[in-house]
Write a structure and sequence with these properties.
By secondary structure, this protein is mainly alpha-helical. It has helices spanning 8-12, 24-37, 49-77, 82-90, 97-102, 116-133, 138-151, 160-170; strands spanning 4-5, 17-21, 40-45.
Length: 171
C-alpha cells in the first residue's frame, strides 16, 4: 500500500508526503521513483500499515481543522474580525501546513481541497477501525458530528473548513 498525504497545494509546492507499506526490499527498489512524487517518503512497515497511518493522519487533520473553525466562529461571535483571526493564526504556533492553506479559505473561499463527504469518509474509517480494536476515538466522533452539521449548511459543497465554520456560526 502506498497512500499519499497532501492536497493540490502541497503537491504544487513539492511537499507531498508518501507512505509505504509492504516488503522493505521492494520499497528500497522503488523509493527513487516515489521521491519524484514527493520528497517526504516514509517506509511504515508491513502491507496495510501505510493506509492505517493515513487514517491516523487524516483523523488528526480533520479534528485540528474542525477545532480551528470552532475557535474562529467563537471569537467572531465576540466581535473579532475573521480576517484578523486568520492572519494571527498564520503567524502563530498553530500555523501548520494544513492551517496554512485552509485557514485563508475562511476569508477568501476560492478553493475546495476536500469537502465534508470526503473528509467524513476518513473519519468513518477511523471509527470502524476503533470499533474493531475496541478503542475509543471521542474527538473523531465529535468532528464527524460537525462534518454532518456542515453538510446541512449552504456551504456544504465548499471545503470542509468553510462548511464546518458555517455550522459553528449557526450554533
Amino acid at each position: 500500500d502506498c497512500p499519499v498525504s497532501g492536497s493540490p497545494a502541497t503537491l504544487a509546492a513539492g511537499q507531498m508526503s508518501v507512505m509505504v507499506g509492504g516488503d522493505r526490499a521492494a520499497f528500497e527498489h522503488v523509493e527513487p521513483v516515489l521521491q519524484a512524487i514527493g520528497p517526504k517518503v516514509t517506509y511504515i512497515g508491513p502491507n496495510g500499515h501505510a493506509i492505517l497511518t493515513k487514517v491516523a493522519i487524516n483523523l488528526a487533520l480533520v479534528v485540528s481543522v474542525t477545532a480551528f473553525a470552532e475557535g474562529v466562529a467563537l471569537v467572531e461571535k465576540a466581535g473579532v474580525d475573521r480576517a484578523a483571526v486568520v492572519d494571527a493564526a498564520l503567524k502563530s504556533v498553530i500555523a501548520s501546513p494544513v492551517i496554512g492553506y485552509r485557514a485563508p479559505l475562511l476569508v477568501d473561499d476560492d478553493a475546495v481541497y476536500a469537502d465534508v463527504d470526503l473528509q467524513q469518509k476518513d473519519l468513518v474509517l477511523a471509527q470502524e477501525l476503533a470499533r474493531r480494536l475496541g478503542a475509543a476515538v471521542p474527538t473523531c466522533s465529535a468532528a464527524s458530528e460537525m462534518l454532518s452539521a456542515g453538510r446541512s449548511t449552504d456551504k456544504r459543497e465548499r471545503d470542509f473548513i468553510v462548511s464546518v465554520h458555517a455550522a459553528y456560526s449557526k450554533l
